[in-house]
Design brief:
Length: 227
């Protein structure tokens, strides 16, 4: 429902708020932090870190990355990209206090950034919105844009995940968009084996695929050090 043109703005804001809650309390932020830390540690601490956040939603991952870098004493610049103007409005509101974050509109299927424009490219909770062929192209683009490495974080499809999402959304919210999309997203998500095959099809070299609590998968590639 969140992808439909003209989605109800009240439901959409509620959906994005629910996603922020799920990310914070059910492992989304922690899973991304776990995947990014090896790449961040391999970077030159004397240089600002440039990170691209694809499919940023309301920008909660971008904010968490900035807060992490502040605690580490690292300078960072995050470019947060989405293609839905209503979602971008929420992202601008949620990131307004963070000068390190720039929110931009962009189509993830046709990114215009030059090769190796960013140290790290992140894409969280977005791949399941794409077909398998589109997700393969997305992995290829993330690799193209990254100087140091990338992280794709998404849901892991399983019967247990679908059952847990159904139960949680019936208890925690009355938002029909969240109730519908939580189940639809898990049916559309990929398995560990499918992501491995897609990374191979993308021709991007060796990647690491790891599981995180609460039905998350990380696909990461750690490349060359910052020069």
């Amino acid at each position: 429902m969140i992808d439909l043109p003209g989605a109800d703005p009240v439901l959409l804001r509620g959906e994005l708020r629910n996603l922020r809650i799920i990310n914070r309390y059910f492992g989304g932020l922690a899973s991304v932090r776990k995947g990014l830390m090896p790449i961040i540690r391999a970077s030159d601490p004397a240089r600002p870190l440039e990170l691209l956040d694809l499919g940023t939603g309301s920008g909660d991952q971008a904010v968490a990355i900035v807060e992490l870098c502040r605690r580490m004493g690292r300078k960072v610049a995050v470019t947060a990209v989405d293609n839905n103007e209503a979602v971008l409005a929420e992202a601008r509101a949620c990131t307004a206090e963070f000068t390190e974050i720039s929110v931009e509109r962009g189509d993830l299927r046709a990114l215009a950034y030059p090769d190796k424009s960013f140290d790290i490219t992140l894409c969280s909770l977005t791949a399941h919105h794409f077909s398998e062929a589109e997700a393969v192209a997305l992995l290829r683009e993330m690799d193209r844009l990254s100087r140091m490495g990338f992280l794709l974080n998404d849901l892991a499809r399983s019967r247990a995940a679908i059952a847990a999402a159904w139960l949680y959304t019936r208890v925690a919210t009355t938002n029909i968009m969240t109730r519908t999309d939580a189940i639809a997203s898990l049916f559309a998500a990929f398995t560990h084996g499918e992501l491995a095959a897609m990374a191979d099809a993308a021709g991007i070299g060796p990647v690491e695929i790891s599981r995180s609590p609460m039905f998350r998968l990380n696909v990461s590639k750690k490349g060359m050090r910052q020069s």
